[in-house]
Design goal:
The complex is a heterodimer of chains A (551) and B (257). By secondary structure, chain A is mainly alpha-helical. In chain A, 74% of the residues lie in helices and 0% in strands. In chain A, helix 5 packs across helix 13 and helix 15 packs across helix 19. Chain B is globular and about 55 Å long. The chains are: A mainly alpha (551), B alpha/beta (257).
Chain lengths: 551, 257
């Protein structure tokens, strides 16, 4: 059931320029395409992916609930849990809004139909709201119940808490759309998709920013701890939703002053302008966005030294072809870029932090849990992200070229793919690490750490190649990937910390154990990579033989 | 009677490359006009602007009295368009896709469903109506696109290589249908590389090259002007096409290098 299903809803839609019948047709269409896995990367339209994501969100939701057992007022507890859940939701919504409004396939089909931008926007927003509702329950449900342990909480606190969380989610969804709308308005068509990608990167780095902003947030929470929210803070949107959650609870109520009014007016104007920028003339402008291409390098891969190294290591010209293909597609394929950049960049961004903290002393020795030890794990997470997304592309129909490639060519190509990823993503970073740390730890310790790290990361990379379904960029994107990416973002850091702990406790306790482990891991990496590449070759032959994929 | 299509000094660019350099022409209602030009001449771009998919860079564009891009949505209600690439929702059936298109054009089911039946029958797709479009051959997909373009009885029909992949019988059907629609007063703008078809069904031909209109007239008048024996000869003459032989010589030398 949608707004177009009842009279008042239809009147409301018409009042904002939405054509109710078309709106209903589009909502039904997106729903059908989502269920049939044709609309990609949209959680709201894919019930299965959304179910998995909701289940995954129960984990952070449960962790947020633990704050209820710390000292502090109900207001402070609610503020912290709302802030944390909003952070997670914002990451999800920026990704979802970006996928929803910059999807190439459906635009090509609908561009010449008489659909107003407002109608299309309303239909898409419906699914964004669905994501908000489906994500809010697991993210905030545990905290809403746990809040009852606070003495100020009344029996209906869970309901007000959830209402506040839903309102915050809707606010964030509109904000995400407004940001995209402003990109549409300000930037030339050829820059919009790249800019949207950077917005996703910023959103995915918010947990880092949140970590850095812990102190101001604590100040905000403390300001509310003894009594109701002070007027001075009420321009912050979070305080409005906090006030909703505290409705009817003990401990005082928020007093609304002029800062709140100014905050609301500014937010409303921002959302109004942004949403209007996105929806007005959307159907015409989005075609321009999809059609436009950024600047292209005219540099030939013939002269690339890495390409020549890959040619040598893979033993065939098709290996060099793989390098050329990979390096171009990784830069240009929208599906790949939008998947990998928000995952890989935050991980790569913490690299310099690790280098800074690890400078003083080598990580070897009992009980020495140096942050630099996270580097092999972080790079393994980057390669895991790469392997998760490598096979999928909007340009998968071009895969027919591999059907007519001889077997020996595919073999060289597969090996070329391996070295094209191994060299820049593993060998190069550890080479830099060795150079940098030689000056601080001495050449032996730096080489031991770099060798160990490279062996571990190579072993992980060899194992991760098992999840690559076929040759890179030759398969249609799958909707399930959204759930996989969401779980990756949520569980990746937890797995990394566990691996880091095990490594610090058992391997880095002495240089000897580290060297032995490095040798074992290097041998295992070689065996695993050979097995994975043989398997990938077979999988490629099987998948390319399936004509429906690209013919 | 006012012209159905007016294009005046139309310019358009993709990123930094201008592909249309001041194109101007008018098409009268009920006229079947062929749009010809070599690859990359700007034919498909022109059609996309006329159908409201792209906004014109500059210049004046009016179709059925609707100026573009301001009235793109209203115009789209009145036109049919067969795009160059058969973009379809692969998981929808042919019938579901046509229902979608009809409803987006605000057709009520009581008129929409019989039209779908008639179109599927005309294109011999009745038995495949419930099959997913992903399983359709190129020609069958093209038939669905043509059906979707005709479903709402448009005043103007834009066709970009509409006969691609069609079998002989269906191609004859489409050509005859276009002539009948023109006789009813509908305007048809037909872009194609198949020159003999254009020659046979179009009363007027526009030839564009590198974003500029280089010829406009009936096939006969163009033939007389260039002393060509066929539209192909006219086309080659006007677009200064190099003869194939020297190019093939160079190619064969390159391949054996």
């Amino acid at each position: 059931m949608t707004l177009a299903s009842f009279g008042a809803g239809r009147t409301m839609l018409t009042a904002v320029g939405v054509q109710p019948r078309q709106y209903q047709v589009l909502v039904d269409l997106f729903g059908a395409l989502g269920e049939r896995k044709e609309l990609l990367g949209n959680l709201g339209m894919d019930r299965h992916a959304m179910n998995i994501t909701s289940l995954g969100l129960l984990i952070p939701g449960g962790l947020f609930a633990l704050f209820a057992f710390r000292e502090g007022s109900l207001a402070a507890f609610n503020m912290i849990t709302l802030a944390l859940s909003s952070l997670v939701l914002l990451m999800l919504l920026v990704l979802e809004a970006s996928n929803s409004f910059l999807n190439p396939a459906e635009v090509a089909v609908l561009a010449h139909r008489p659909i107003t931008g407002a109608t299309y926007f309303a239909a898409k927003l419906t699914y964004l709201v669905l994501v908000v509702l489906r994500a809010t329950a697991p993210l905030n449900g545990p905290a809403a119940l746990a809040g009852l342990v606070k003495p100020e909480a009344r029996w209906f606190y869970p309901f007000t808490h959830l209402a506040a969380a839903c309102a915050a989610g809707l606010f964030l969804a509109l904000m995400a759309c407004a940001v995209l709308g402003l990109l549409f308005r300000i930037l030339p068509a050829s820059r919009v998709r790249s800019a949207a990608l950077w917005v996703q990167v910023v959103a995915s780095m918010l947990p880092l920013a949140f970590n850095l902003a812990r102190r101001p947030l604590q100040t905000l929470a403390d300001a509310m701890a003894p009594r109701a929210i002070g007027v001075d803070w009420s321009f912050v949107p979070l305080t409005w939703f906090n006030a909703i959650a505290l409705t009817g609870q003990g401990g005082g109520q928020m007093s609304w002053g002029w800062p709140a009014a100014i905050g609301m007016i500014v937010s409303a104007v921002f959302i109004g302008i942004g949403v209007r920028s996105l929806s007005a003339g959307y159907m015409t402008r989005i075609v321009g966005v999809m059609r436009s291409s950024g600047r292209r390098s005219r540099r030939s891969q013939r002269g690339s030294p890495i390409g020549r190294i890959v040619r040598t290591m893979s033993g065939r010209p098709s290996g060099q072809a793989a390098f050329g293909f990979m390096s171009r597609m990784m830069r240009r394929d929208w599906q790949f870029r939008r998947g990998i950049i928000p995952v890989a960049l935050p991980l790569l961004a913490i690299g310099p932090l690790m280098l800074r903290t690890g400078v003083e002393v080598a990580p070897f020795g009992a009980g020495r849990f140096s942050v630099i030890g996270l580097l092999p794990v972080a790079l393994s997470l980057v390669t895991l992200g790469l392997c998760q997304m490598l096979a999928y592309s909007d340009h998968y129909r071009g895969a027919w070229v591999f059907v007519i490639t001889p077997k020996i060519g595919v073999r060289g190509f597969v090996r070329g793919v391996y070295w094209s990823l191994w060299l820049p993503f593993l060998a190069l970073p550890f080479g830099v690490v060795m150079l940098v740390f030689s000056a601080y730890w001495g050449v032996a310790d730096a080489a031991l750490f770099a060798g160990y790290g490279l062996a571990v990361a190579s072993l992980m990379f060899g194992l991760q190649l098992l999840i690559v379904e076929t040759l890179p960029f030759t398969s249609a994107p799958r909707a399930e990937r959204s759930a996989a990416i969401a779980s990756f973002i949520m569980f990746g850091p937890v797995a990394a910390v566990i691996a880091w702990g095990v490594q610090g406790q058992f391997i880095f306790r002495s240089r000897l154990t580290t060297a032995l482990a490095a040798l074992v891991f290097a041998w295992a990496a070689k065996v695993t990579a050979e097995y994975s590449l043989r398997l990938l070759e077979i999988k490629a032959h099987h998948s390319l033989a399936a004509p429906s994929e690209f013919v | 009677m006012p012209p159905s299509i007016v294009v005046e000094n139309l310019r358009f660019r993709y990123s930094s490359v201008e592909v249309l350099h001041g194109l101007s022409f008018e098409i009268a209602p009920g006229e079947v006009t062929g749009l010809l030009g070599p690859n990359g001449a700007g034919k498909s771009t022109t059609l996309k602007i006329l159908t409201g998919i792209h906004a014109p860079g500059s210049g004046r564009v009016e179709v059925q009295g609707f100026s573009l891009p301001q009235h793109a949505v209203e115009l789209k209600q009145r036109i049919g368009y067969v795009p160059e690439a058969a973009e379809l929702y692969e998981t929808l059936s042919a019938r579901e896709f046509l229902e979608l298109c009809g409803r987006l054009h605000d057709l009520e089911d009581r008129s929409l469903l019989p039209r779908i039946d008639a179109l599927l029958e005309a294109f011999e797709l009745t038995d495949h109506g419930h099959n997913e479009l992903g399983s359709f051959s190129k020609g069958m997909r093209q038939k669905v696109l043509i059906s979707a373009a005709l479903l709402h009885n448009p005043d103007v029909i834009f066709l970009d290589e509409p006969l691609t992949g069609l079998d002989v019988e269906s191609a004859v059907l489409v050509k005859t249908l276009l002539a009948s629609l023109a006789a009813q007063g509908r305007t048809v703008l037909y872009s194609s590389h198949v020159l003999d078809v254009v020659e046979r069904i179009c009363a007027r031909v526009l030839i564009i090259d590198q974003g500029v209109l280089i010829a406009d007239g009936s096939p006969e008048s163009l033939k007389a002007r260039t002393q060509g024996s066929s539209l192909e000869a006219v086309f080659r003459d006007l677009t200064h096409a190099e003869s194939a032989e020297p190019r093939i010589d160079r190619l064969l030398k390159g391949l054996t290098a």
